[in-house]
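Let us practice reading a record.
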Amino acid sequence: MTKRFGGITAVDGVSFDVIPGEILGVIGPNGAGKSTALKAAFGMVKVRSGRIVFEGDNIVGRSQSELLSGGISFVPQGRNIFPAMTVRANLELGGVSLRDLGLTRRRIESIAFEQFPVLEQKADEQAGMLSGGEQKMLEVGRAMLLERRLLLIDEPSIGLSPILVQQVFGLLSALRDRGVTVLMIEQNAKKALEISDRGIVMQQGRLALAGSAREIFDHPQIGHLFLGGAVELDG
């Protein structure tokens, strides 16, 4: 994949695979092209050249609604909820397309609450009153209302306390354990690779390193490049 903005090459010939049922963590410094690559996969950025293949089909040029219908969800960076609306109303908005398929509001809610029981407990609270971790769960829950096979998520830990980061990363691990494939962009390299099966490192728009999470952490330059020193991977 290659993507340019004017005279700047944001993604320069990057190629990688995401294996079904894994979490692939993408790390690298700011401006490395990580988010651009993720947005391209969801049709938010038009690539200059290259293919993006999902389950054997080239999805370049498809609309976001087509990608959603095809089993791909995207959770962007930052808070993407309606804070003055209830948790229930946020889920109902996310389920508009499901009602077109004949699902009732009650069934839409049950799908989300089965996966995220904490949301059911706070269904009638304003979404803006949830903790940061609960808001992220609401975002992911809304994105996963259909049987999604691939979740694209951009910087899930941004703005969260360490405890909430653990909760959100635990949620992503649970989704992986249920068979959802996760492609995650994450600035917190250590936390990202602790839950990832494999990782890739991007730098200046290029793929600098790819391998298992352990291989990347064991690489002599990774700790100094992104974490200011040597690191230890939990487990």
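A brief commentary: The chain has eleven helices and ten strands.
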